[in-house]
C-alpha cells in the first residue's frame, strides 16, 4: 500500500493532485487549513467516486499544528511515500502598499509550511531509504510578476529550497522535485480581468489555460520516475519568459 499526503488538497490544484493519487490506488491524506465547507464538499465528492481520503485540519505555518497533524498521519499509516507541498496563498499588492505583516504572512504560508512539512517526514523517509517530496511553486517564482512581488519571492524561495534539499537527501534515495505551474484555471484566477486573461493567453504557445489535472500528471511523473531529483518541471503550456 502506497501513501500520499497532499497539503491544501480540498480545491483547485491540490484537489486534482489528490484525486490523481487516489486513482492510482494510493491511500491519500489531505490537509486543509480552515474552509470546513470546502473540505466537506471534497470529502463527499470523493466518497461518491468510491475514494475515501483522510482529511485533517491544520495551520501548517504553525510548528505545533504541523507536528500534530503529521503525528496523526503516521499514527494511521506508519509510512509516507509521497508528500506534496501544495498549500499556499496568493497576494496581489503594490510593493509600496505591502505591510511587513503581509510579507511575513505569505512567507509563513508559502515557505515556512514547506520547511515544516518536509522536516516532519524526512527522518522516516531516510530510514526507509526511499520517498518523494514534490513542492508546488509557480512560474512567477521563475520569472517574477509585477504586483505579486511577495508571492513571486516565496515561490522563488521554494524552488531554491527544493534544489538544496534534493542534494541533501539524494544519498538516502529520497527525491525532491518541484512543479512550477503557469496560468492554471483555478479560483486564484478569479481576480483576473478578461483583458488580463487575454494577455496571458497571448503568451502561452499552447493557447489555453492549464488545468489542475495538468499539474497532477506532472506530480505523478515526478514520484514515479526514480532517477529524477532536484528538478523544476514547468507546467505552463510554453509560457513565454
Helical fraction: 40-55%
Overall spatial form: globular
What separation lies between the terminal Cα atoms?
41 Å
Query: What topology, given as strand order, has the largest sheet?
Result: 3-2-1-4-5-6-7
* Multimer state: single chain
Q: Estimate what percentage of residues fall within beta strands.
A: 15-25%
Poorly predicted regions:
none
Instruction: Please report the total strand number as a whole number.
Output: 7
Radius of gyration: 17 Å
What would your notes on this structure say?
With 241 residues, the protein is α/β, with parallel strands linked by helices. It is globular, with a radius of gyration of 17 Å. The model has no long low-confidence stretch (mean pLDDT 94). Helix 2 links the parallel strand 2 and strand 3.
Amino acid at each position: 500500500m502506497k501513501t500520499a499526503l497532499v497539503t491544501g488538497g480540498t480545491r483547485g490544484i491540490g484537489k486534482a493532485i489528490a484525486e490523481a493519487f487516489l486513482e492510482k490506488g494510493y491511500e491519500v491524506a489531505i490537509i486543509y487549513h480552515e474552509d470546513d465547507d470546502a473540505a466537506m464538499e471534497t470529502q463527499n465528492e470523493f466518497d461518491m467516486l468510491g475514494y475515501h481520503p483522510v482529511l485533517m485540519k491544520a495551520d501548517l505555518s504553525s510548528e505545533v499544528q504541523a507536528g500534530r497533524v503529521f503525528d496523526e498521519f503516521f499514527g494511521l499509516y506508519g509510512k509516507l511515500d509521497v508528500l506534496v507541498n501544495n498549500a499556499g496563498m496568493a497576494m496581489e499588492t503594490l510593493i509600496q502598499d505591502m505591510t511587513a505583516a503581509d510579507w511575513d504572512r505569505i512567507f509563513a504560508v508559502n515557505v515556512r509550511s514547506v520547511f515544516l512539512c518536509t522536516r516532519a517526514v524526512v527522518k522516516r523517509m531516510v530510514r526507509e531509504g526511499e520517498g518523494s517530496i514534490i513542492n508546488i511553486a509557480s512560474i512567477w517564482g521563475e520569472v517574477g510578476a509585477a504586483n505579486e512581488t511577495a508571492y513571486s519571492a516565496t515561490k522563488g524561495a521554494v524552488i531554491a529550497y527544493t534544489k538544496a534539499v534534493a542534494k541533501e537527501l539524494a544519498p538516502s534515495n529520497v527525491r525532491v522535485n518541484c512543479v512550477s505551474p503557469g496560468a492554471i484555471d483555478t479560483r486564484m484566477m478569479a481576480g483576473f480581468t478578461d483583458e488580463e486573461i487575454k494577455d496571458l493567453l497571448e503568451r502561452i504557445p499552447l493557447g489555453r489555460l492549464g488545468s489542475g489535472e495538468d499539474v497532477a500528471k506532472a506530480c505523478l511523473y515526478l514520484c514515479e520516475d526514480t532517477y529524477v531529483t532536484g528538478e523544476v518541471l514547468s507546467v505552463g503550456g510554453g509560457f513565454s519568459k
